[in-house]
Amino acid sequence: MTADRVYLSPPDIGQLEEDRLVAALRSGWVAPLGPEVDAFERDLAERVGVAHGVALSSGTAGLHLGLIALGVRPGDVVLTSTMTFAATANAIVYTGAEPYFVDADPATGNMDPELLEQALAGVRELGERVGAIVPVDLLGKTADYTAIEEIAAAHGVPVLSDAAESLGATHAGRAAGSFGAASILSFNGNKVMTTSGGGALLTDDGDLAQHVRYLATQARQPVVHYEHTDIGYNYRLSNLLAALGRAQLSRLDEMIARRRALRDRYKRAFGDVTGVEVFGADGDEHDNAWLTSIVVDAEAAGWEPSELSAALAAENIESRPLWKPMHLQPVFAGARGEINGSSKRLFRTGLTLPSGSALRDEQVDRVFAAIDVFLGAR
Ligand SMILES: *Cc1c(COP(=O)(O)O)cnc(C)c1O
């Protein structure tokens, strides 16, 4: 019999989630909205330290409506990280704006503020309008918002923070999800916490929150006969899933602690291995350790990340390269950007390893045993 598959970041769901979900069902609030949604929005805002939360059907929906509510229009340029999941760039395209990709700080994979500055200057010189800047908090480490917010303010461009991966992280003493004019979170199944599919937009701006809530509920005017003056969307989170989200949020710190312990074990396992570094390990007490990756200098190490990946796959253990940068994706071929090769190098040299808080001890032991065998044979 082959051992069960070890995934990178499976959902971490237990008795509490089951109890809260059943309680929400039995309360009768099955129709989409209800008291759990309102409470989840308050819980999220409180956790992150912002005034308002809007619970949505996905992080992608949050990006889409956040951009619209910040005034992004067709024909605008929106600057974003090239090192991200496609959802960030897709949401920009949904608005009719053009994604313009900014390369990464090689230490973190996050948007390089100097390249952002160059990108802004370049686009402005062409006389084009920059609608927004969307930095992404890669693998749970926040972007350098100290630098980015200053640059954005100097150019008068709003920031929408893609904090889909970084709930629980901090930057300069502030929580991920509290930066920019608004931030979005994702509760997809592989994220640090899940609603089995969901997201949120967080902001201190009450009008912005109200506008996003309105657009997400089909842009219904507050009258009984369904009056519409805007194009709306059906992007709200359901009451049942919000109940699941509240249970997960109450366990967030415990789940992050488990991911951190795994990160520490990877640091020990690769500590003296020539040519291998745990990605972003510098200052990692500030990130939520969502996913742990290694970066391999193949010449120094004597092996390629793909070789370790194959050895893990033979033991039914999942591993993956870092996000393939957007400027290298066929669908964004020809897109403009401020590119210096950092993200391409990270894509070639990085490997993401099982990192989830739901991994059982014996699964974790299997991962480290496979790594030991692989390293022992080099
Ligand atoms: C997961 C993710 C999203 C999309 O969130 P969904 O809830 O899956 O729509 C957006 N951006 C980043 C960086 C992500 O990792």
From TrEMBL:
Species: Microbacterium marinilacus
Question: What family is it from?
Answer: Belongs to the DegT/DnrJ/EryC1 family.
> Which co-factor is required?
pyridoxal 5'-phosphate
- Which keywords does this chain's UniProt record carry? Aminotransferase, Pyridoxal phosphate, Transferase
Identification of the protein by name: Aminotransferase class I/II-fold pyridoxal phosphate-dependent enzyme
Picking any one GO molecular function of the record gives:
transaminase activity
Top-level taxonomic group: Bacteria
> Which InterPro entries does this entry report, sorted A to Z?
DegT/StrS_aminotransferase, PyrdxlP-dep_Trfase, PyrdxlP-dep_Trfase_major, PyrdxlP-dep_Trfase_small
Q: Which Pfam families match?
A: DegT_DnrJ_EryC1
